[in-house]
Amino acid sequence: MTGHVVLVTGGNRGIGHAIAKRFAAAGHQVAITSRSGTADDANDLLVVQADVTNTESVDAAVTEIEEKLGPVQVLVSNAGITKDGLVLRMSDDDFIDVLDANLTGGFRVAKRVSKGMMKARWGRMIFISSIVGLGGQAGQANYAASKAGLIGMAKSLAKEFASRNITANVVCPGPIETDMLLALTDDQRDAMLSVVPAGRLGQRDEIAAAVEFLASESAGYITGTVLPVDGGYSMG
């Protein structure tokens, strides 16, 4: 599969950037969004400014991508934020802001790109959730709710769009070697790894590989599924 137009939201860093670079290396035309409109190591990427919490910003970003690359055929909805805190200390704004960026933002982008996919009668939507959305996490009620919400939304989209050959799936990363995890203390990382059967942190490109498969022609009969990439963490 080469030559598709791919959009990765929040593709300027971390897991999103690894996904974007993997698609670009495979010969696709890849656009990424970031709030600033900038990104490092973006020579083979179209970088577009977008705020997924604003419908007009999303529309303008997708319009720019359509004008420069063509209609979006593969959406990787990755943009998101965290505002962690225990429930008793979490403000309404902190809860609402995370849901707006992580869940409603995913809805805004999916709704906008679905128009071109419906017309073409082909498309792939992959939403980046988290194992926190499957099992919860103390101090992350807002984040867990937003990531769990993505699963329900993706399953609904899968049913709505199935007749048009558009799939919608979810990838749930486990503990991945990112800047956030590397900032933890050795004791914190050891505690996390103690519950991962694989005994190690995952790599960003392992998430990218799963996403690439779900976007392929070979995955055309897979829709509405949730794929944990977590070293066995979510087995229970």
Description:
- With 236 residues, the protein is an alpha/beta fold.
- The chain has one domain (5-176, 205-226): Rossmann fold (3-Layer(aba) Sandwich).
- It is built from 8 helices and 7 strands, in the order βαββαβαβααβαααβ.
- A 7-stranded parallel sheet has the order 3-2-1-4-5-6-7, sandwiched between helices.
- β1, α1 and β2 (29-34) form a beta-alpha-beta unit.
- The N and C termini lie far apart (35 Å).
- 42% of the residues are buried.
Low-pLDDT stretches? none
What is the correct CATH architecture?
3-Layer(aba) Sandwich
Number of strands: 7
**What's the SSE pattern?**
EHEEHEHEHHEHHHE
Total helical segments: 8
Radius of gyration: 17 Å
Oligomer: single chain
**Overall average pLDDT:** 95
Widest sheet: strand ordering: 3-2-1-4-5-6-7
- Beta percentage is 15-25%
User: Which CATH class is shown?
Assistant: Alpha Beta
Reported by name, the CATH topology is Rossmann fold
Shape summary: globular
Structurally, the number of domains stands at: 1
Labels describing this entry:
single chain, 236 residues, alpha/beta, Rossmann fold, seven-stranded parallel β-sheet, 7 strands, 44% helix
What's the gist of this structure?
With 236 residues, the protein is α/β, with parallel strands linked by helices. It contains eight helices and seven strands.
Question: SSE layout and pairings?
Answer:
Layout: E1 5-9, H1 14-25, E2 29-34, E3 46-49, H2 55-68, E4 74-77, H3 92-120, E5 123-128, H4 132-135, H5 141-161, E6 166-173, H6 179-182, H7 186-193, H8 204-214, E7 226-229
Parallel strand pairs: 1-2, 1-4, 2-3, 4-5, 5-6, 6-7
Helix pairs in contact: 1-8, 2-3, 3-5
